[in-house]
User: What shape does this take?
Amino acid sequence: MNIERITLREIRMPLVTPFETSFGRLTDRRMLLVEAAVNGVSGWGESVAGEGPFYAPETVETAWHILRDFIWPLLKGREFSSASEIWDILAPIRGHNMAKGAIEAALWDAEARQKGLPLWKLLGGVREEIPCGVSIGIKPTVTELIATVESELAAGYQRIKIKIKPGKDIEPVAGLRERFPRIRLMVDANSAYRLEDWPHLKQLEPFYLMMIEQPLGWDDLFSHQELQRKLETPICLDECIHTVEHARAAIELCACRIINIKLGRVGGYVPSKQIHDLCQSRQIPVWCGGMLESGIGRAHNIALSTLENFTLPGDVTASRRYWTEDIIDPEVEVTPEGTIRVPSGPGIGYNPRIDRIEKLSARKEILT
Ligand code: OSB
Ligand code: MG
Assistant: This one.
């Protein structure tokens, strides 16, 4: 394989409803798309970097810069036999996983298209249908939250995750549990608490949550170990796990009992699979996180979720939950049972709508 050309595009799309987390409120999404032209086919990837460095250190701007000024010079003119080699080729660049993950995923899509295979099969996926959960942003009132949960359950989703932050935690969880005693429920704090808050977090225990996602510092494994010792509820790590080494440390320290894998956060399919395999060997279940992706990133999350140890429902949902009109054809749909049927076409199995993508592009750069 040889990359003829990379096209970077930045698209902007308004969210159907604003999404609030402990680190901010989002009404629009800026997304960097990578199109890689490889021996006559196009592969697509999406960088999940946000507009600001508030979930992780990278931003749309840093990802663009790293892709253009450092990643492309390493890849340009280089012969490789499979996308599985890209992660090692990019090793001289430290960090910048969201930039690396976007191009790596695009090259996996290209390789699968070239071979006429669905990407999930090329990756060794085992599941033709994936279980889906939803992530619900912080709502102004418990009444609104309950109404939202009601409609997501009616749509079929198998588990509910709500975002929490100090002051918006015990009350919404208690309210939901009272109304929905039997649903699979979890919370995500996006690092909004400190270890000293543990007695407060302890108050969540009577609500038998499936897990508490990333309660403490975004890079603080040690405090999560201390907290997990004090809690019965499993801790799931998201932000903290950006390498397989961090995953190993988290598991050995017992800093978590579940890991959320995001392609962008860890740098692509090869590191995702390494973390997946490590977790599987240690009986740590994983699930696929989401970053409010457009259809391109969403399609990649579906492919990733077919790997064997993705046993818990992920934050992988229908296009219409976020977008009035997605950039892929067909859009991602969820069955009444709360699953997504994995597509059988080549590559990611959804077709990028190039006209629409071009129209939405605020910026474009072709690297040759
Ligand atoms: O922590 O999982 C997170 C969105 C943006 C940044 C971080 C997170 C999220 C979500 C959304 O929870 C999940 C989705 O895409 O549906
Ligand atoms: Mg999270």
The first helix runs from residue 60 to 75.
